[in-house]
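step 4 of 6: structure.
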Amino acid sequence: MKDFTLDNLTDVVTEAYTKNTASPRHAEIFGALIKHLHSFAKEVSLTEQEWFEGIQFLTETGKKCDDKRQEFILLSDTLGLSMVVDAINHPKGGKGTESTVLGPFYVEGAPELESGSNIIKGDGDGEVVLVTGTVSDADGKPLKGAKLDVWQTASNQLYDVQDPNAPEWNLRAKIKAKDNGEYSFISEKPTSYPVPTDGPVGRLLSAAGRHAFRPAHLHFIVSAPGYETVTTHIFVDGDKYLDSDAVFATKAKLVTKFISSTDEKLAAEYGLPTPFCRVNYDFGLMPA
Amino acid sequence: MKDFTLDNLTDVVTEAYTKNTASPRHAEIFGALIKHLHSFAKEVSLTEQEWFEGIQFLTETGKKCDDKRQEFILLSDTLGLSMVVDAINHPKGGKGTESTVLGPFYVEGAPELESGSNIIKGDGDGEVVLVTGTVSDADGKPLKGAKLDVWQTASNQLYDVQDPNAPEWNLRAKIKAKDNGEYSFISEKPTSYPVPTDGPVGRLLSAAGRHAFRPAHLHFIVSAPGYETVTTHIFVDGDKYLDSDAVFATKAKLVTKFISSTDEKLAAEYGLPTPFCRVNYDFGLMPA
């Protein structure tokens, strides 16, 4: 019989997860996972106590997940894994809008609203901002049937799903762009905010002496029939956390100026006082 | 500001988790973890869909854990990680009893019973076995005050905590060895059994085309004042799964013959009919 030792364990386990594996892709992933998992433990000479703390950490991370919070995505984000996966699947250099992390607070099923809608459902303590732009292909040709799934924190630094006092779908909507590719909506200027620190990820950040803040941003999932959907943010230029995003998700091309506008025509169109805060961002999608 | 790419992400993330980390050991572990986590994703060019399936898998694994089931330990066991950690911390070649995995079904707080006790609380469908042996130091000197925390499955292949019909602490006890190091107890001969397959780990085994069985064994945690506690099993010689343990935990020196005994004196002492099943295993502990 096999007597398992440090010298043969990784080979034996790898064989067990590859030789009868129906899917070649599964076999590839299992093999790499086992190699790196075992190498990690060997490299640091992981103690049994540390192993058990790891088991407890992962268990607590699972327990923290519910329909409104995804602590494993937050863990992946804060360890930079999400951005590695993003970079693998969306290499730089393309002509379309760059992507970044989904984050743990996306909720499927936000109400579909016409372009021009106001998505502020809460008390509106934040600074009102008019968000405008276009959705086109990478050459600037407007796309018909584009949708922009948007979500963001309120001025209290919380997403609606984190805040028991927030109305449902506050600062969250699926905006239908016009046939000419133009979109607009009224929201609040996003603020920088800490990722949740009351769970295992908070303890990890604390152990590493890292702050938990993300630079202010609006989340977008932009889609159009026949084109590749892009999951991205637009960041507020000048935010003090742009250089130290807790989840490493910043990209220079996604940083955007939020300006003070005195455009009377726009103000009248959207029922805003002047001056008002405004941001414009044009998205470019690649063919699917 | 930093623009994160595949080329710089691992360096940037590693720096973030090591430069301000209070504990040098934490910094070492975080650095190795990030390196292997990122390398894994890059090596297999992990897709976003695969990443998300991984997130869901880990989340479900956490959700499956409760006070009676530890799916993350089972995952660690079935991926061979637990045995790697065992091998790191208990290198072969020592004179003491070899260790193996704790497994996911250990429960702290089993009743303390005198040597010679019967730990069968259930219907006793299994074959009765007399377990005997000694606890000594590695040179064979009997140890005073030794305890043996034992647990095992019943004949229906379930641990008490898996079986709603099992009496509490069935086939589970903390046996106090005698002052001369001898211990004995009456139990049931263990049977091979599948690890739980109704959770994420079951799906993993299935995807890899692996069976879920473990060769029959008794679990032991053997301790004595001043000596290193050993977590181990004794395996039933001849079991057909000894060569393909689902958790890679077999070791040749832990495989033991369960014999049919006609010893009338022993039978009378323990109130057993003859012939009866018997196993003897002598444990050797190393100084703490």
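step 5 of 6: annotate
 - Residues 262 and 275 of chain A are 5 Å apart (CA to CA).
 - The longest strand of chain A covers residues 128-137.
step 6 of 6: archive
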